[in-house]
Amino acid sequence: MLPDRLEQLSVMGLPIHWSRDYAGWLLSNMRQGRGAHVVTLNAEMSMQADQNVVLRKIIQSADLVIPDGAGIVLYFRLKGKRIQRCPGIELAAELLQKVAPDEAVFFYGGTPGVAETAMQAWQQRSPNLAIAGVQHGYLTPEQQPAFQESLRSLQPKLIFVGLGVPRQEFWIAEHRHLCPQAIWVGVGGSFDIWSGSKSRAPAWFRQNHLEWLYRLYQEPWRWRRMLSLPQFAWRALTYTKP
Fold it and tell me: What are the residues whose beta carbons fall under 8 Å from the beta carbon of 14, sequence distance 6 or more?
């Protein structure tokens, strides 16, 4: 069965692609020789893009923009369009479960040791998972050329970049030419969750669009970033196309 075709929606001039089978769409494209840059859009990133022209253009040119945040889903619900939230960590996990043994995976980002532990956890979970490599996100500028050449040589099919928003989006946009047939996904703090360094919100919080509240409980210093939620609600509802 072919995956659903993408329906393109818009929030604050940014695209949102809606499908019930994002992983199927991505893998189908990859196996036909077409790579993709995946952006996991939430309210915070939307507000950053509202102020950052470069980030805005990257999101607008991405091959797939998924509704990662509860704010995005609620916005469309107010507009009479019901879509489901697709957290980036869940899409990433689905891709890892569905890639073929000859479709190698690369983890890049996180503090030293975290991505390695996350990769080991996935190897135990999926013994047939092909590992192209892993690299923490604290390389010096002098170390970057060798790392980039290694990526070019390895040509992994699935590349997860966990450098945080918007740094990971900038990095992918600048370097995806190294592996043009790969799926590139900015995964934020997913390596921390998979490695056990941090825990994800319990199911009740996720199902009731309160994952942000659990993250605030874990990391109180994030409170300033959480101000983007009411700011997004107001900006989205009053947005007029330039």
Answer: 41, 46, 49, 56, 59, 60, 65
| Structural element, H or E, at residue 240 | none
Residue 1, domain member (yes or no) = no
Mean pLDDT of all residues belonging to the chain: 89
Please give the C-alpha separations between residue 99 and each of 25, 102, 104, 163, 180, in angstroms, as whole numbers. 12, 8, 8, 23, 17
What is the reported pTM? 0.88
Residue 24: inside a domain, yes or no?
yes
Nearest 5°: the CA angle 94, 96, 101 is 135
Indicate whether 2 belongs to any domain: no
Query: Which of the four pLDDT bands, split at 50, 70 and 90, describes residue 216?
Result: low
Within 10 angstroms of residue 108's Cβ, the number of other Cβ atoms is: 26
Task: Answer yes or no: is pLDDT of 3 > 60.
Answer: no
Cβ(105)–Cβ(158) below 8 Å: yes
Q: How far apart are CA 127 and CA 96, in angstroms?
A: 11
Q: How many CB atoms lie within 10 A of CB 204?
A: 9
Domain-embedded: residue 91: yes
Domain count, the chain: 1
pLDDT for position 2: 46
Residue 228's domain comprises 7-238
pLDDT level of residue 236 (50, 70, 90 thresholds): confident
CA 152 to chain centre: 21
R_g (Cα) of the chain, nearest Å: 17
